[in-house]
Amino acid sequence: MSTTALNPAVIPTELRTMRACMLCTLIKTYDQFVDDGCDNCGQVLGMQGDRDRTQICTTTSFEGMIGLMIPDESWVARWNNLIKFTPGCYAIGVHGNLPPDIIHELRSNGISYILRD
Questions:
Q1: What does each of the 117 residues of the chain score in pLDDT, given as a tens digit?
Q2: E-assigned strands of 7-115?
């Protein structure tokens, strides 16, 4: 069995305030992003504890939802480039772009930003 299966999934705690990370498409509530940051992009985007940064780096405009429990064994994860991410709920597509200064910050750290429209 995969070791990823042992990690708990990140699941939104309510439906009304769901948002998707614009970098990895993880879906959580606004408060979950502020309280814990993004489980995949936490160090890079620095949303934890920063309401303004959370507002900028997440969006309420997304399509579809993937429930991903064992990413390294899932063909859906492979198809959507989610294999290395934490188990949880992911948007199939997100609308909007990160601001240019954050994209520049990502590039300077060697991270490429892929639009997920």
A1: 444 445 677 888 888 889 999 999 999 999 999 999 999 998 889 999 999 999 999 999 999 999 999 998 999 999 998 999 999 999 999 999 999 999 999 999 888 888 777
A2: 18-21, 27-29, 58-59, 62-63, 66-68, 88-90, 93-94
